[in-house]
Amino acid sequence: MIEMTRFILDGFFYASILFLISSGLTLIFSVAGIINLAHGALYMLGAYIAAVLIKSLINTPYAILAFPIAALIIGLIGIIIERGFIKWIYEREFVYQLLLTFGLALVLSDITRITFGTEPIYVTKLYIHAGIIDILGSPYPVYNFIVMAVTFLIGGLMWFIMYKTRAGKIIRACALDREMSEAIGINTSRVFTLTFFMGSALAGISGALVVPQSAAMLGIDADALIESFIVIVIGGVGSIKGAFIGSLLIGLIRAFGIALFPEIELAIVYLVMAAVLLIRPRGLFGKEYRVA
Amino acid sequence: MGERISRRDFLKGLVGGLIVGGVIGVAGGYVAAPGKEKTITATKTVTSEKTVTKTVTAATSGAKTVTETTTTTVTAKPKPREIPSKPIKLGVITILTGPGAMLFDPGLKALQMEVEKINAQGGILGRKIELVVKDSGGKPDKCIEHYKRLVTEEQADFITVGATSAEACALAPIAEESKVLTIIQEGTATKLFEEVDPHPKYVFRINNYDALDAISHAIAIHKAWPKAKKFAVIGADYVWGHDEWNIITTVLKKLVPDMEIVAEAWPPLFAKDYSAHISKVLAAKPDVVELCLWGGDLVTCIKQGIGYGLFKQCKVASVTGGEYVWGLGTECPEGILCSTRYYFLYPPWDRWHINKEFNEEFHKRYPDSHGGYPGFNCNSAYTAIHALKLAIEKAYAITGGWPTTEEIIAAMENLMVPTPGGYRYFRKEDHQMLGYAVSGFTKVSKEFGFAILDPVWAVPPEEMAPPPGKKWKEWVESWKIE
Amino acid sequence: MWLRGNMLSYKTLLIIGLLILFAIPLLGSSYLDFLFSMALIYSIWALGYNFLLGYTGLLSFGHGAYFGLGAYTVAMLVTKYSFRPFLPVLGIAVLVATFFGAIIGFLCARHVAKYFALLTLAFSQLFYALTFKLYHWTGGSDGIVVKSLDFFGVEVSAIKNPIGYYYLTLIFFLVSVCSGWRIVNSPFGKALQAIRDNPLKAEAIGIPVKRYKWYAFIISAAYSGLAGALFAPLLGYAYPDLFHFSFSGEVLFATLLGGHRVFFGPVIGAIIFTIAKSYIIATVKYWPLVLGSMLVITALFFPHGIIGTIYVVLKRRGSKTP
Fold first, then answer.
1. For C159-272, where are the E strands, in sequence order?
2. Domain boundaries in chain C?
3. B vs C: CB pairs below 8 A
4. Residue A53: what pLDDT?
5. Three-state DSSP class for residue B181
6. In the 8-state DSSP scheme, what is residue B335?
7. Average pLDDT over residues C272-279
8. Please, are residues B161 and B135 in contact by the beta-carbon 8 Å criterion?
9. What is the mean pLDDT of chain C?
10. Is B443 helix (H, G, I), strand (E, B) or coil?
11. How many Cβ atoms sit within 10 Å of the Cβ of residue B463?
12. pLDDT per residue as tens digits for the range A163-173
């Protein structure tokens, strides 16, 4: 029983991380139609910025500000990327956005390396001082709960904004039909910029939240990118709900996979992907795309 | 393309080009025999020979006449090669980008520090050393490209490599073929000299390889906790993790015949989250949990382990943990048994001056790097350049001139090099250098700001290194345990 | 007048290019042989890749998979199973790559462009994970050494005989270019272009769109497999990074650098890319920055690639003549 709760919690926690990481990519993809290959690099940069901030502010109560600051900075970088580079290729063939964002990813990750060095930045105090809580007799770190709570909050916020506010309606309209939205007077380029800001900020904050419980180091950009892609493939293109459910699915299956079939962890995510693709090729909640 | 060229024209052009080009190409290929650019001449020193012939002639009168004819053939001894005045070009292939960079960047810094020191003292036999640094990013194709370029276009005299196991194994055959002395600082695959290049000529390796780490660590575990019987592992799910665990358990089985493996968890390399793995392992209630992880993975796992009470419930060990725990600062749990290939506090600074000087210089120059003190990559870098220097000087003492690559190789075999980590020596048979493995329990040190190993002890190579030519498994199996 | 001049110069360019390629071993050291062998291998890969991208309009972001399959098949046959005859080994490698190309192509080709890209990427990463995981068989992250092959008694080793191996690669390069040209100019090739330009119209005039997309994928995988199969002995090593998406990005860039709307674009692009990349990583400390910037600049300002841009410029000039 103890183990069962443990594993379920572990599953939820991993799902939270996955959702956080992939939500930014999904948002940008579903609204602006851009596969942002620089997403992983933004995530990594957010992690490093947060790590440095936390380390320097750790003995003050301001350390918690590291997270929103990191998110903000990365969000601003997202705006720069969109206005400076992406906007030129919206109308062009799909291949150019891949090339462009791939190039930006290389540039960003090298800038990160040049700025912060090649060695990992570890932040230990925050995680440990968050404390340990007792769940049915076995210890569980409080920080994990914090992350899960934040994820829920962010997910809820996204849903609320998208479906319950006028701004969200406008964003969804742009996603569905850019020309039509322009015709009825929506400033679509501003909407896209806003989306990029939000998506990048999500990448930044997910990097920041992951740092206290792991580390800011080189190479996490590629891993984050792959994981985001797999979540999108499983959850379905253009669907935030899909990303949420997909993350949950992967998180839980993985947790039980580790417990029962240890050898399978590396392959499990791909197995789930293969299963979903065979049963429902466009992903769990994928929308049929116009001819892209 | 504009006016589309017709297929006929295309073929015409192609065939024409083929014929003309083919003629030139075949002729050229015939002329330029493979591997022609770098010819190494070995100098043979011939000394003068003296032949003494004694002829005894018996004269008819009965008196003996002894004629002594001495024929002296003097072959002029060729002059020893002059020491060139231009600097020694040392090519350095290492990893400066990507996740592997955290391991090799400090090593490069240490190398640069030592080279500057040697150059300040006049260089090697008066020749300064010039470093040409290339970054392979951990990819074998780039590594090989850099190597070929260094050896042909940039005329490097020697190459030193700090790279992944894959790169080292990929490079070895090419290094042998290029006939350039290649010192692999780090490239720890056991199979390098066991399978890939079993009779190396031009390739030498500095660091203790993976099997040695595992064997010495298992010996240390048994020494630390002789009563432990139930073992579990959280290991990185790739070749290294599995191989190390395999070796550790084989040795433990030999030392503790009734041991059992109660749980295994294999997170992928560079995983962020070890919660499920820790949970799984804890559920099996082991005596000792081995963390077969390195770098950020180890730090993350330990950090999360604290959150799950791992360190209160069982003993924990880590096969290469010695310096990675520095990342945890003062939050590191105490009592973790860590092993490493070189530990900055061993041999103690008050006894072994080389270690003291190396650490103090490194700390003064790079206080922000890697905890501020040198790790095993730094020791390998030191060893590489000093081994080269010693070998060249030794060969010079024998030949009286600037030695050829073959002469340096001969000097390097069985060479004993004083390094910060103690004395190390190259084996002649497989060009593998051996040094102590160091193990100890973590203990937080306010002075250093991170966890040091205290108490610490060394396992000498004689106890943990299979003899050359023998695979580790058969050697371990042949141990006699009372 | 302009017509004739253009055709003449085009043929001349071809011949000059071929002469240079044949004369490479005379122009430099074994490093140049190695470099150009690599360049030609990348050209074969890019050529195959462009069947999908330039001619069918499908962007695959996981083509390292078939390259890697070709390389690993050669490595395993030669080193693990000691099966060394050159042509059969190459043939089996191409078959293996084609086989998986057929399966994955079938699963992916029916999807729309962006999803297609993600799927191909996901499958490539699956191979990466499997190679890593099944290390007892594949050598895992340590990779597999590729020993020399045997061609009717003659040892084929790029390490011992770089010039010989270069000419071998050159022959396969020429075969690929010629066969590629024929495919592209065949009715099938024209059908692919029709699919690229307007899939609905193509369907309407009776072209089996999904099936042809699948065929294009298979052909593309075959060429990639050949490239990978030649790559493994050149390096003497096969390793999992070939399956990683960052490696797939290289062929994408090489193709676009040359120009994906022109037949010779990817070929020339791959050669230029290989040489430029080799120079940059050897001399520049911040090479990912430089390489990344090149990609950005190409995407923004040279969408037609080098050859494509030349072609566009020539065409504009040509249209000025009365």
1. 237-238
2. 4-316
3. 173
4. 94
5. coil
6. T
7. 94
8. no
9. 89
10. strand
11. 13
12. 888 888 888 88
- The type of residue at C239 is Y
**Long-range contacts (CB closer than 8 Å, 24 or more residues apart) made by C85-92:** C85/C149, C85/C150, C85/C151, C86/C149, C86/C150, C86/C151, C86/C156, C87/C151, C89/C149, C89/C229, C90/C226, C90/C229, C90/C230
- Contact assignment for A10 to B276 by CB distance below 8 Å: yes
**Can you tell me the distance from the alpha carbon of B442 to that of B130, in angstroms, rounded to the nearest whole number?**
39
DSSP codes joined into one string, B347-384: S-TTT-HHHHHHHHHHHHH-TTSGGGS--HHHHHHHHH
Q: At B257, list the tokens.
A: 């015949």
Supply the pTM of this predicted model. Answer: 0.88
What share of chain A has pLDDT > 90, as a percent? Answer: 36
Q: How far apart are CA B159 and CA C302, in angstroms?
A: 39
Which member of B266, B295, B369 has the closest CB to residue A263? B266
Whether residues B303 and A214 touch (CB distance < 8 A) is answered with yes
Please indicate whether, in this complex, the C-beta atoms of C30 and B170 are within 8 angstroms of each other: no
**Which of A220, A238, A224 shows the shortest CA–CA distance to A18?**
A224
Packing angle between helix C162-185 and helix C187-197, nearest 10 degrees? 70
Distance of alpha carbon B94 from its chain centroid, rounded? 12
Contact B328 A124 (CB under 8 A): yes
CB atoms C15 and B16 under 8 Å: yes
Instruction: Please check whether residue B285 touches A, CB under 8 A.
Output: no
How does residue B79 score in pLDDT terms, banded at 50, 70 and 90?
A: low
Distance CA A112, CA A42 (A): 9
- Give me B200's structure tokens: 């190396």
Interface test with B, best of C18, C161, C175 (most B CBs within 10 A): C18
Is residue B366 within 8 A of residue B136, CB to CB? The reply is no
The residues, ordered by sequence, that sit 6+ positions from C241 with a Cβ below 8 Å of its Cβ are B138, B139, B140, C128, C247
Q: Residue B34: pLDDT above 50?
A: no
Residue of A106, A267, A281 with shortest CB distance to C129: A267
pLDDT of amino acid B32: 41
Select the residue from C3, C9, C30, C166 to test the B interface by mutation, using most B Cβ atoms within 10 A. C30
| Each residue's pLDDT tens digit, B41-76 | 333 444 444 444 454 444 444 445 555 555 555 555
Euclidean distance between CA atoms C48 and C50, whole angstroms = 5
Which two tokens mark C40?
């030609």
The interface predicted TM-score (ipTM) is 0.91
Structure token digits, residue C16 = 């000059």
Interface membership of B17 toward C (CB under 8 Å)? yes
Q: C touches which chains (3+ CB pairs under 8 A)? A: A, B
Give yes or no for a contact between C231 and C154, defined as CB atoms under 8 angstroms apart. Answer: no
Q: Which residues pair with B90 in a beta bridge?
A: B131, B158
Judged against a pLDDT cut of 80, whether residue C219 lies above it is answered with: yes
Cα–Cα distance list, B112 to A117, B132, B291, B376, B378 (Å): 17, 11, 33, 15, 10
Q: Which residues contact B303 (CB under 8 A, 6 or more apart)?
A: A124, A127, A128, A213, A214, B328, B331
For residue A85, count other CB atoms closer than 10 A to its CB.
Answer: 18
CATH topology of domain C4-316: ABC transporter involved in vitamin B12 uptake, BtuC (1.10.3470)
CA B84 to chain centre: 28
CA distance A127 to A211: 9
Task: Write the pLDDT tens digit of every residue in B166-224.
Answer: 999 999 999 999 999 999 998 888 888 888 888 999 999 999 999 999 999 999 999 99
pLDDT in tens, A182-237: 888 888 888 999 999 999 999 999 999 999 988 999 999 998 998 888 888 888 77
pLDDT tens digit sequence for B110-144: 999 999 999 999 999 999 999 999 999 999 999 99
CB B461 within 8 A of CB B434: yes
Q: What DSSP designation does C243 have?
A: G
